[in-house]
UniProtKB/TrEMBL annotation:
GO terms for biological process: tRNA methylation. PANTHER family: WD REPEAT PROTEIN, WD REPEAT-CONTAINING PROTEIN 6. SUPFAM superfamilies: WD40 repeat-like. Keywords: Cytoplasm, Repeat, tRNA processing, WD repeat. It comes from the Eukaryota. GO terms for cellular component: cytoplasm. The lineage of its organism: Eukaryota, Metazoa, Ecdysozoa, Arthropoda, Chelicerata. It comes from Amblyomma americanum (Lone star tick). This is Uncharacterized protein.
Length: 113
């Protein structure tokens, strides 16, 4: 199986679960679309767990959002505001029971935990 999370200019967060078969076919097992995940375009999304049940997204709206995927739905767990006005890249990792994220743009960085 291949888990993919995407976001873009339409402000939607899309989670897709693919099955890669032995004959090199790709089958879509599941797709969840959250059409208004952010107020502006999404600039990044990342899974936090190998099974894909927790993910983080960020956008030009200066929000970092933590999502939980369960029972066929995506539910927002929490949201944090960032002082970075145009987040272009980010990296997140779990540290014990905490989530740490680095947000970047051309002229600034911010560490959230």
């Amino acid at each position: 199986m291949l888990l993919v999370v995407t976001g873009g200019d339409d402000n939607a967060l899309v989670f897709t679960n693919y099955l890669l078969t032995e004959d090199n076919s790709i089958v879509v097992l599941e797709e969840q679309v959250l059409s208004s995940a952010h107020c502006t375009q999404i600039t990044g999304a990342q899974f936090l767990a190998p099974r894909g049940n927790w993910l983080v997204s960020t956008g030009v709206d200066q929000r970092l959002r933590l999502w939980q995927r369960a029972a066929g739905s995506l539910q927002e767990h929490c949201s944090r505001f960032s002082c970075i006005p145009d987040i272009a890249a980010f990296a997140c990792w779990r540290q014990d029971f905490f989530l740490a994220c680095t947000l970047c743009m051309c002229d600034g960085r911010q560490l959230l935990s």
